[in-house]
Design a protein that fits this description.
Elements: H1 3-8, E1 19-23, H2 28-40, E2 45-52, E3 55-63, E4 79-80, H3 86-98, H4 125-129, H5 144-148, H6 150-159, H7 176-189, H8 193-205, E5 209-211, H9 241-247, H10 254-257, H11 260-264, E6 272-274, H12 276-287, E7 291-292, E8 295-296, H13 300-305, E9 333-334, E10 348-351, E11 357-361, E12 366-372, H14 383-395
Antiparallel strand pairs: 1-3, 2-3, 2-12, 4-6, 5-6, 7-8, 9-10, 10-11, 11-12
Helix pairs in contact: 2-14, 3-7, 3-8, 6-7
Length: 396
Protein backbone atom coordinates (compact mmCIF):
# COMPACT_ATOMS: atom_id res chain seq x y z
CA UNK A 1 0.00 0.00 0.00
CA UNK A 2 1.37 3.43 -0.93
CA UNK A 3 1.78 6.28 1.54
CA UNK A 4 -1.07 8.11 -0.19
CA UNK A 5 -3.36 5.10 0.18
CA UNK A 6 -2.39 4.85 3.86
CA UNK A 7 -3.32 8.49 4.47
CA UNK A 8 -6.68 7.98 2.76
CA UNK A 9 -7.56 4.85 4.76
CA UNK A 10 -10.35 5.58 7.28
CA UNK A 11 -10.03 4.50 10.87
CA UNK A 12 -12.86 2.01 10.57
CA UNK A 13 -12.08 -1.15 8.57
CA UNK A 14 -13.41 -1.28 5.03
CA UNK A 15 -15.49 -4.27 4.02
CA UNK A 16 -13.74 -6.78 1.80
CA UNK A 17 -14.71 -6.71 -1.87
CA UNK A 18 -14.66 -10.52 -1.78
CA UNK A 19 -14.34 -13.12 -4.54
CA UNK A 20 -17.32 -13.62 -6.85
CA UNK A 21 -18.27 -15.75 -9.83
CA UNK A 22 -18.19 -19.48 -10.41
CA UNK A 23 -15.59 -22.22 -10.52
CA UNK A 24 -16.09 -25.82 -11.60
CA UNK A 25 -15.06 -28.07 -8.66
CA UNK A 26 -12.46 -29.73 -10.86
CA UNK A 27 -10.63 -26.38 -11.06
CA UNK A 28 -10.79 -25.53 -7.35
CA UNK A 29 -7.00 -25.11 -7.36
CA UNK A 30 -7.40 -22.06 -9.63
CA UNK A 31 -9.80 -20.45 -7.17
CA UNK A 32 -7.39 -21.19 -4.31
CA UNK A 33 -4.49 -19.60 -6.20
CA UNK A 34 -6.66 -16.58 -7.09
CA UNK A 35 -7.58 -16.09 -3.42
CA UNK A 36 -3.95 -16.58 -2.41
CA UNK A 37 -2.92 -13.77 -4.77
CA UNK A 38 -5.03 -11.38 -2.67
CA UNK A 39 -3.71 -12.69 0.63
CA UNK A 40 -0.03 -13.07 -0.21
CA UNK A 41 0.82 -11.23 -3.45
CA UNK A 42 -0.75 -7.80 -2.87
CA UNK A 43 -3.50 -8.19 -5.45
CA UNK A 44 -5.79 -5.15 -5.52
CA UNK A 45 -8.45 -6.05 -8.07
CA UNK A 46 -8.41 -8.87 -10.61
CA UNK A 47 -10.30 -11.47 -12.58
CA UNK A 48 -9.43 -14.89 -13.96
CA UNK A 49 -11.26 -17.10 -16.43
CA UNK A 50 -10.56 -20.56 -17.83
CA UNK A 51 -12.18 -22.38 -20.73
CA UNK A 52 -11.95 -26.15 -21.20
CA UNK A 53 -13.08 -27.70 -24.49
CA UNK A 54 -14.73 -24.40 -25.34
CA UNK A 55 -16.73 -24.20 -22.10
CA UNK A 56 -16.11 -21.59 -19.41
CA UNK A 57 -15.20 -23.51 -16.26
CA UNK A 58 -13.74 -20.65 -14.20
CA UNK A 59 -15.02 -17.08 -14.13
CA UNK A 60 -13.90 -15.30 -10.97
CA UNK A 61 -13.40 -11.67 -10.02
CA UNK A 62 -12.75 -9.75 -6.84
CA UNK A 63 -11.05 -6.90 -5.02
CA UNK A 64 -11.16 -3.25 -5.93
CA UNK A 65 -11.29 -1.39 -9.22
CA UNK A 66 -9.49 1.69 -7.85
CA UNK A 67 -6.53 2.50 -5.64
CA UNK A 68 -8.72 4.18 -3.01
CA UNK A 69 -10.75 0.96 -2.69
CA UNK A 70 -14.09 2.66 -3.21
CA UNK A 71 -15.27 0.66 -6.27
CA UNK A 72 -15.55 -3.13 -6.06
CA UNK A 73 -14.34 -5.07 -9.08
CA UNK A 74 -17.49 -6.33 -10.78
CA UNK A 75 -18.36 -8.98 -13.34
CA UNK A 76 -18.09 -6.57 -16.28
CA UNK A 77 -15.17 -4.45 -15.05
CA UNK A 78 -12.65 -3.98 -17.85
CA UNK A 79 -8.99 -3.02 -17.61
CA UNK A 80 -6.12 -2.18 -19.93
CA UNK A 81 -4.28 -5.47 -20.53
CA UNK A 82 -1.18 -4.03 -22.21
CA UNK A 83 0.57 -6.57 -24.46
CA UNK A 84 -1.98 -9.31 -23.89
CA UNK A 85 -3.65 -7.33 -26.71
CA UNK A 86 -1.06 -8.66 -29.15
CA UNK A 87 -2.71 -12.11 -29.30
CA UNK A 88 -6.05 -10.77 -30.62
CA UNK A 89 -4.16 -8.56 -33.10
CA UNK A 90 -2.28 -11.61 -34.39
CA UNK A 91 -5.65 -13.34 -34.73
CA UNK A 92 -6.74 -10.59 -37.14
CA UNK A 93 -3.73 -11.24 -39.37
CA UNK A 94 -4.23 -14.99 -39.32
CA UNK A 95 -7.89 -14.65 -40.28
CA UNK A 96 -6.82 -12.68 -43.37
CA UNK A 97 -4.10 -15.23 -44.16
CA UNK A 98 -6.57 -18.09 -43.79
CA UNK A 99 -8.82 -16.41 -46.36
CA UNK A 100 -5.97 -16.13 -48.85
CA UNK A 101 -5.84 -12.34 -48.55
CA UNK A 102 -2.49 -12.20 -46.75
CA UNK A 103 0.65 -14.21 -47.47
CA UNK A 104 2.77 -14.45 -44.34
CA UNK A 105 5.83 -15.17 -46.50
CA UNK A 106 5.33 -12.11 -48.72
CA UNK A 107 7.22 -8.83 -48.28
CA UNK A 108 5.35 -6.32 -46.13
CA UNK A 109 5.80 -3.83 -48.99
CA UNK A 110 3.50 -5.95 -51.18
CA UNK A 111 0.64 -4.62 -49.05
CA UNK A 112 2.20 -1.41 -47.74
CA UNK A 113 4.45 -0.03 -50.53
CA UNK A 114 5.89 2.85 -48.48
CA UNK A 115 7.33 0.30 -46.07
CA UNK A 116 10.06 -0.63 -48.55
CA UNK A 117 12.00 2.53 -47.64
CA UNK A 118 15.35 2.39 -45.80
CA UNK A 119 16.24 -1.11 -46.94
CA UNK A 120 13.06 -2.84 -45.73
CA UNK A 121 11.93 -4.18 -49.10
CA UNK A 122 12.70 -7.77 -48.04
CA UNK A 123 11.09 -7.64 -44.59
CA UNK A 124 8.40 -10.35 -44.55
CA UNK A 125 5.01 -10.32 -42.87
CA UNK A 126 6.17 -13.19 -40.65
CA UNK A 127 8.96 -10.96 -39.37
CA UNK A 128 6.37 -8.46 -38.09
CA UNK A 129 4.43 -11.18 -36.28
CA UNK A 130 7.53 -12.69 -34.66
CA UNK A 131 9.28 -9.48 -33.50
CA UNK A 132 12.05 -10.05 -36.07
CA UNK A 133 11.51 -7.00 -38.28
CA UNK A 134 14.18 -4.92 -36.55
CA UNK A 135 11.65 -2.17 -35.77
CA UNK A 136 11.38 -2.56 -32.02
CA UNK A 137 11.23 1.22 -31.68
CA UNK A 138 11.70 4.40 -33.65
CA UNK A 139 15.13 6.04 -33.87
CA UNK A 140 13.78 9.57 -33.52
CA UNK A 141 11.89 10.91 -30.52
CA UNK A 142 8.25 9.81 -30.58
CA UNK A 143 5.99 11.38 -27.97
CA UNK A 144 2.88 9.90 -26.42
CA UNK A 145 0.77 12.29 -28.49
CA UNK A 146 2.64 11.09 -31.59
CA UNK A 147 1.79 7.50 -30.68
CA UNK A 148 -1.90 8.41 -30.54
CA UNK A 149 -1.68 9.55 -34.19
CA UNK A 150 -2.06 6.42 -36.32
CA UNK A 151 -1.02 7.99 -39.61
CA UNK A 152 2.05 9.70 -38.15
CA UNK A 153 3.24 6.57 -36.34
CA UNK A 154 2.84 4.30 -39.36
CA UNK A 155 4.50 6.87 -41.65
CA UNK A 156 7.53 7.04 -39.34
CA UNK A 157 7.73 3.24 -39.10
CA UNK A 158 7.62 2.96 -42.88
CA UNK A 159 10.43 5.51 -43.25
CA UNK A 160 12.83 4.25 -40.56
CA UNK A 161 15.67 1.76 -40.94
CA UNK A 162 15.84 -1.47 -38.90
CA UNK A 163 17.98 -1.79 -35.78
CA UNK A 164 19.28 -5.20 -36.92
CA UNK A 165 19.10 -7.39 -40.01
CA UNK A 166 15.44 -8.41 -40.26
CA UNK A 167 14.75 -12.09 -39.79
CA UNK A 168 17.96 -12.88 -37.93
CA UNK A 169 17.00 -12.11 -34.31
CA UNK A 170 13.96 -11.27 -32.22
CA UNK A 171 13.73 -7.99 -30.36
CA UNK A 172 10.44 -7.37 -28.60
CA UNK A 173 8.36 -4.77 -30.50
CA UNK A 174 6.60 -3.58 -27.34
CA UNK A 175 4.69 -0.62 -28.80
CA UNK A 176 5.38 -0.83 -32.54
CA UNK A 177 4.02 -4.36 -33.08
CA UNK A 178 0.40 -3.24 -33.19
CA UNK A 179 0.93 -0.45 -35.70
CA UNK A 180 3.07 -2.68 -37.91
CA UNK A 181 0.73 -5.67 -38.01
CA UNK A 182 -2.27 -3.37 -37.77
CA UNK A 183 -1.35 -1.31 -40.81
CA UNK A 184 -1.05 -4.48 -42.89
CA UNK A 185 -4.52 -5.47 -41.65
CA UNK A 186 -5.82 -2.02 -42.59
CA UNK A 187 -4.24 -2.02 -46.04
CA UNK A 188 -5.97 -5.32 -46.86
CA UNK A 189 -9.33 -4.98 -45.10
CA UNK A 190 -9.80 -1.22 -44.91
CA UNK A 191 -10.20 -1.54 -41.14
CA UNK A 192 -7.79 -0.99 -38.28
CA UNK A 193 -7.39 -4.01 -35.97
CA UNK A 194 -9.93 -2.82 -33.40
CA UNK A 195 -12.75 -2.53 -35.92
CA UNK A 196 -11.70 -5.71 -37.74
CA UNK A 197 -11.61 -7.68 -34.47
CA UNK A 198 -15.06 -6.39 -33.51
CA UNK A 199 -16.55 -7.25 -36.89
CA UNK A 200 -15.00 -10.69 -37.17
CA UNK A 201 -14.65 -12.03 -33.61
CA UNK A 202 -15.74 -10.06 -30.56
CA UNK A 203 -19.02 -8.91 -32.09
CA UNK A 204 -20.13 -12.41 -33.18
CA UNK A 205 -19.07 -13.86 -29.81
CA UNK A 206 -20.58 -11.00 -27.82
CA UNK A 207 -17.48 -10.59 -25.65
CA UNK A 208 -16.20 -7.45 -23.95
CA UNK A 209 -12.85 -6.63 -25.52
CA UNK A 210 -11.93 -3.45 -27.40
CA UNK A 211 -8.70 -1.92 -28.69
CA UNK A 212 -8.84 1.40 -26.91
CA UNK A 213 -11.93 2.12 -24.84
CA UNK A 214 -15.02 4.03 -26.01
CA UNK A 215 -15.76 6.99 -23.76
CA UNK A 216 -19.21 5.58 -23.00
CA UNK A 217 -17.51 2.57 -21.35
CA UNK A 218 -15.12 4.55 -19.14
CA UNK A 219 -17.21 3.94 -16.03
CA UNK A 220 -16.47 0.21 -16.30
CA UNK A 221 -12.69 0.67 -16.42
CA UNK A 222 -10.48 -0.26 -13.51
CA UNK A 223 -7.76 2.16 -12.48
CA UNK A 224 -4.26 0.84 -13.10
CA UNK A 225 -1.87 1.26 -10.18
CA UNK A 226 1.89 1.27 -10.69
CA UNK A 227 4.08 -0.65 -8.23
CA UNK A 228 5.40 1.90 -5.74
CA UNK A 229 9.05 0.99 -6.32
CA UNK A 230 8.93 0.82 -10.12
CA UNK A 231 7.76 4.05 -11.69
CA UNK A 232 7.98 3.95 -15.48
CA UNK A 233 10.95 6.29 -15.75
CA UNK A 234 13.04 4.24 -13.33
CA UNK A 235 13.49 1.37 -15.79
CA UNK A 236 15.19 3.26 -18.60
CA UNK A 237 18.76 3.78 -17.38
CA UNK A 238 21.84 1.86 -18.54
CA UNK A 239 20.15 0.06 -21.43
CA UNK A 240 21.16 -0.29 -25.05
CA UNK A 241 19.75 2.13 -27.65
CA UNK A 242 17.42 -0.54 -29.06
CA UNK A 243 16.02 -1.34 -25.60
CA UNK A 244 15.44 2.37 -24.92
CA UNK A 245 13.78 2.75 -28.30
CA UNK A 246 11.49 -0.20 -27.61
CA UNK A 247 10.56 0.54 -24.00
CA UNK A 248 11.03 4.28 -23.52
CA UNK A 249 10.16 6.06 -26.78
CA UNK A 250 7.69 7.06 -25.42
CA UNK A 251 7.65 5.99 -21.77
CA UNK A 252 4.22 4.73 -20.75
CA UNK A 253 2.90 3.51 -17.44
CA UNK A 254 -0.21 3.40 -15.30
CA UNK A 255 -0.79 7.16 -15.28
CA UNK A 256 -0.71 7.35 -19.06
CA UNK A 257 -2.91 4.27 -19.47
CA UNK A 258 -5.54 5.74 -17.13
CA UNK A 259 -5.82 8.90 -19.24
CA UNK A 260 -8.64 9.74 -21.61
CA UNK A 261 -6.14 10.23 -24.43
CA UNK A 262 -4.72 6.72 -24.12
CA UNK A 263 -8.16 5.14 -23.97
CA UNK A 264 -9.38 7.11 -26.99
CA UNK A 265 -6.40 6.08 -29.14
CA UNK A 266 -5.85 2.80 -30.97
CA UNK A 267 -2.57 1.23 -29.87
CA UNK A 268 -2.99 -2.42 -30.84
CA UNK A 269 0.23 -3.50 -29.13
CA UNK A 270 -0.79 -2.24 -25.73
CA UNK A 271 -4.24 -0.76 -25.11
CA UNK A 272 -6.73 -3.56 -25.41
CA UNK A 273 -9.37 -3.32 -22.68
CA UNK A 274 -11.34 -6.32 -21.57
CA UNK A 275 -12.51 -8.77 -18.96
CA UNK A 276 -10.69 -12.00 -18.11
CA UNK A 277 -13.65 -13.82 -19.64
CA UNK A 278 -13.06 -12.02 -22.96
CA UNK A 279 -9.32 -12.71 -22.91
CA UNK A 280 -9.95 -16.41 -22.24
CA UNK A 281 -12.41 -16.51 -25.15
CA UNK A 282 -10.02 -14.82 -27.59
CA UNK A 283 -7.17 -17.14 -26.66
CA UNK A 284 -9.75 -19.92 -26.65
CA UNK A 285 -9.94 -19.57 -30.44
CA UNK A 286 -6.32 -20.73 -30.55
CA UNK A 287 -6.88 -23.43 -27.91
CA UNK A 288 -9.86 -24.69 -29.89
CA UNK A 289 -7.77 -25.01 -33.06
CA UNK A 290 -9.72 -22.18 -34.66
CA UNK A 291 -13.14 -22.78 -33.11
CA UNK A 292 -14.80 -21.17 -30.10
CA UNK A 293 -18.39 -20.68 -28.99
CA UNK A 294 -19.68 -22.90 -31.75
CA UNK A 295 -18.08 -20.71 -34.43
CA UNK A 296 -15.06 -21.35 -36.62
CA UNK A 297 -12.71 -18.40 -37.02
CA UNK A 298 -9.64 -20.21 -38.39
CA UNK A 299 -9.08 -23.49 -40.16
CA UNK A 300 -7.19 -26.04 -38.03
CA UNK A 301 -4.15 -25.54 -40.25
CA UNK A 302 -4.20 -21.76 -39.79
CA UNK A 303 -4.66 -22.09 -36.04
CA UNK A 304 -1.67 -24.43 -35.86
CA UNK A 305 0.47 -22.00 -37.83
CA UNK A 306 0.14 -19.40 -35.06
CA UNK A 307 2.60 -21.39 -32.96
CA UNK A 308 5.08 -22.08 -35.73
CA UNK A 309 8.38 -21.35 -33.98
CA UNK A 310 10.57 -18.76 -35.64
CA UNK A 311 13.83 -19.72 -33.97
CA UNK A 312 14.99 -19.73 -30.38
CA UNK A 313 17.28 -16.91 -29.28
CA UNK A 314 17.97 -14.45 -26.49
CA UNK A 315 15.62 -11.59 -27.29
CA UNK A 316 17.47 -8.31 -27.85
CA UNK A 317 14.96 -6.29 -25.81
CA UNK A 318 13.60 -8.55 -23.06
CA UNK A 319 16.35 -11.18 -23.04
CA UNK A 320 17.45 -10.15 -19.58
CA UNK A 321 14.02 -10.92 -18.21
CA UNK A 322 14.28 -14.67 -18.79
CA UNK A 323 16.71 -17.45 -18.01
CA UNK A 324 18.08 -18.50 -21.36
CA UNK A 325 16.40 -18.21 -24.73
CA UNK A 326 12.80 -17.63 -25.79
CA UNK A 327 10.98 -18.39 -29.01
CA UNK A 328 8.20 -16.48 -30.70
CA UNK A 329 5.64 -18.08 -32.94
CA UNK A 330 3.70 -16.05 -35.48
CA UNK A 331 2.15 -13.63 -33.05
CA UNK A 332 2.50 -15.26 -29.64
CA UNK A 333 5.26 -16.72 -27.48
CA UNK A 334 5.84 -20.43 -27.02
CA UNK A 335 5.90 -21.80 -23.49
CA UNK A 336 9.20 -23.50 -24.30
CA UNK A 337 11.57 -25.04 -21.78
CA UNK A 338 11.07 -22.31 -19.17
CA UNK A 339 7.32 -23.10 -19.02
CA UNK A 340 5.93 -19.59 -19.25
CA UNK A 341 2.54 -21.04 -20.23
CA UNK A 342 2.63 -24.33 -18.40
CA UNK A 343 4.46 -27.65 -18.81
CA UNK A 344 3.46 -28.22 -22.44
CA UNK A 345 6.36 -26.62 -24.35
CA UNK A 346 4.02 -26.05 -27.31
CA UNK A 347 1.44 -24.14 -25.30
CA UNK A 348 1.58 -20.47 -26.14
CA UNK A 349 0.27 -17.09 -25.11
CA UNK A 350 1.16 -13.51 -24.31
CA UNK A 351 1.77 -11.57 -21.11
CA UNK A 352 0.92 -7.93 -20.56
CA UNK A 353 3.16 -5.43 -18.80
CA UNK A 354 2.54 -5.66 -15.06
CA UNK A 355 0.87 -9.05 -14.91
CA UNK A 356 -2.04 -9.83 -17.27
CA UNK A 357 -1.96 -12.92 -19.47
CA UNK A 358 -3.68 -14.92 -22.16
CA UNK A 359 -2.80 -18.61 -22.59
CA UNK A 360 -3.75 -21.29 -25.12
CA UNK A 361 -3.00 -25.01 -24.97
CA UNK A 362 -4.62 -26.94 -27.85
CA UNK A 363 -3.39 -30.30 -26.54
CA UNK A 364 -5.11 -29.77 -23.19
CA UNK A 365 -7.99 -27.88 -24.85
CA UNK A 366 -7.74 -25.05 -22.32
CA UNK A 367 -7.33 -21.30 -22.39
CA UNK A 368 -6.82 -18.84 -19.55
CA UNK A 369 -7.32 -15.11 -19.20
CA UNK A 370 -6.01 -13.13 -16.23
CA UNK A 371 -6.41 -9.37 -15.79
CA UNK A 372 -5.59 -7.09 -12.87
CA UNK A 373 -5.03 -3.45 -11.94
CA UNK A 374 -2.13 -3.42 -9.46
CA UNK A 375 0.81 -3.77 -11.81
CA UNK A 376 3.87 -5.74 -10.82
CA UNK A 377 7.38 -4.72 -11.94
CA UNK A 378 7.57 -7.48 -14.55
CA UNK A 379 7.27 -7.37 -18.35
CA UNK A 380 6.34 -11.06 -18.20
CA UNK A 381 5.93 -13.99 -15.81
CA UNK A 382 4.41 -12.09 -12.91
CA UNK A 383 4.21 -14.36 -9.82
CA UNK A 384 0.41 -13.98 -9.65
CA UNK A 385 0.01 -15.14 -13.25
CA UNK A 386 2.48 -18.00 -12.69
CA UNK A 387 0.52 -19.17 -9.62
CA UNK A 388 -2.70 -19.30 -11.65
CA UNK A 389 -1.05 -21.16 -14.54
CA UNK A 390 0.51 -23.69 -12.16
CA UNK A 391 -2.88 -24.21 -10.50
CA UNK A 392 -4.60 -24.72 -13.85
CA UNK A 393 -2.25 -27.53 -14.81
CA UNK A 394 -2.53 -29.16 -11.41
CA UNK A 395 -6.27 -29.38 -12.02
CA UNK A 396 -5.97 -31.08 -15.40
Amino acid sequence: MTAQETRQTPRTPRPSAGIHGHCDPRFAAVREAFEENFREREELGAAVAVTAAGRTVVDLWGGWADAARTRPWERNTVVNVWSTTKGPVALCAHILADRGLLDLDAPVAAYWPEFAAAGKDEVLVRHLLSHRAGLAGLRKRHTLEDLYDWELTTERLAATEPWWEPGTRSGYHALTYGHLVGEVVRRISGLRPGAFLEREVTGPLGIGFTVGLPARESGRAAELVHPAAAAAGDRTAAFSPVVLAALANPVVGAAEANSAGWRAAEIPAANGHGTARAVAALYGVFAGRGTFGGRRFLSPQAAERVREGQGSCRDLVIGGGFDGETEAGLGLWLSGPHGAYGPNPRAFGHDGFGGSCGLADPEAEVSLGYVMNRMGPHIADDPRKSALVDALYRAL
